[in-house]
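Suppose you are handed a protein chain with no further information: no name, no annotation, nothing but its sequence. What can you learn? This example shows the usual starting point.
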Amino acid sequence: MPSHRLIPLLAALLGTMALPVLAAGGGDGGAFTLTPEQITWQEGKATQRVDVHADAAHHVVTRRVRIAAGTDLPPHGHERGYRLVTVVSGTLLLGFGDRFDAAMLKPMPPGSVFSEDAGHRHFARTLQEPVVLQLTEVCLACAAPSPARP
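A reasonable first move is to predict its three-dimensional structure. Written in structure tokens, the prediction is:
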């Protein structure tokens, strides 16, 4: 993938191209429901994020991230919190470190789980199919979870 395409992809993953919150709140202590049909992905973007639920009282936010087929994500880290990530669909090739090293990529098929602390750098690749991840971020030192952005 040309390097000029990597920066927009990383920016999208980090949330600068986020979609609105889709959780259907029930007003009953934070319970909600969300079906796959209620998640709307924007066509044409290589990496997208949908905030599906946030609970400011517990400093937690859950997101779905979709990464297009044939995408390389350069090494990056997240500034805050702890993240627990589950591969929902597709196979993510994941590596940890400060430089992209294809020899370090480990296949993470659907159902795989990984975690990352703030500042822990990682990189990834998708192959012939898009990958959907679900990540939950907990940030007790933060005033509130990352808000949904239009």
